[in-house]
Every structure is written in C-alpha cells, then in structure tokens.
Amino acid sequence: MSLPPFQQLVDDHWRDVSRLARGLVGPVHADDVAQQAWTQALAAYPRLRSARNLRSWLLTVTHRCAMDHHRRARRSDPHEDPGSMAVAPVVAPPAEPPDADLWAHVAALPPRQRDAVVLRFVGDLDHRAVAAALGTTPGMSRRLVSDALATLRLDLVDPLDAAAPVDAAAPVDTAASDAAAPVDAAAPSDPEDPS
After folding, report:
1. At the N or C end, where does the chain have fewer CB atoms within 10 A?
2. Looking at residue 146, what is its pLDDT?
C-alpha cells in the first residue's frame, strides 16, 4: 500500500490539525503547534509503513506537539510556583459557535481528562486513537472521557433546572391519570357485582 502525496494529506486534514491544536493550547499558540506538527509529520511521513489511519496518526503527532509545548511552558521559569501557573485557555473551534462557559470548564479539567475530551470530541477520534495519543489503553481513555463528562455535567447543570419546583396549586388532570392507570386483573370488572 503506497502513501498518498504529503500535500494531499495536508489538504485533507489541515482543519483537523488546526482545530485540535487550538483546543489543546488555545488560540495564541495554536499556529505554532500546528506548524510544528506538520513539520514533524513531514519528516516522519516517508518512514510510515501503512496508509491506514493517517488522520489518527496526524492528530496523535499534533497532540504530542501540544504536550511538548506545555512542557516547554512549564520549564520556562523553573522558580515559578507550579500551583500559580495558569492553564492555557481552551476555546471553541471557529467552526462552531463559541460557548465560553463550557470551554472554561473544559480548561479547568485535569490535564489528562481535558486532553482525552478534546481528542475525542474536537479531534473526533475513537477511544483506540485517543488511547494511542495519550499512551494508555482504550479502557482508560473511556474512563478519562467518562470522568471528564461527569465533572462537566456536575459543573454545568443549572440548579434551577435540576430541581424544578412542583406547583402544588396547579390543577391535576385526573382523567388523564385514570386513563393511564394499569388495570388490575384480580379486580372485579363490575363494581356493583361483589362476586
């Protein structure tokens, strides 16, 4: 199986690489990370053995470049308190309407959960590809995504929607509730007949 020309790979997947980079490192550094990913992909491309899953491979390269970017950012000031380091802003991809609240909560997730969610939903990778990108098992990638989604659900649920008050003064439609009531087979069919 021969590989398609590299330019075709760029034409087919540049949006995916840019969106993933933007989701992982924010808009300020996304172009640098995407460019680094393309450079590394070009260098490694002739050594690929198979043309299967090129998109997954490319997004894995992008994820690793983003992680390298985060490592370099942490090492830039070795005397800085690690707890005071700001998390890179994660923003919605430009193709979708921005939801600042959601992306702020995604940015606040633990790094591995955040990466798993971004790879799964922004990168549109399956759990095997997410696992390969994160260097873990598919089961663990499912767990990371599941835990992240559970955290987001808890953080983003509106308390007023979750506990909608029941209006005790509202009239109850008994005809509708009687019609839907189950029929007891042991009960007599004629209420006048005591047998």
Report:
1. C
2. 94
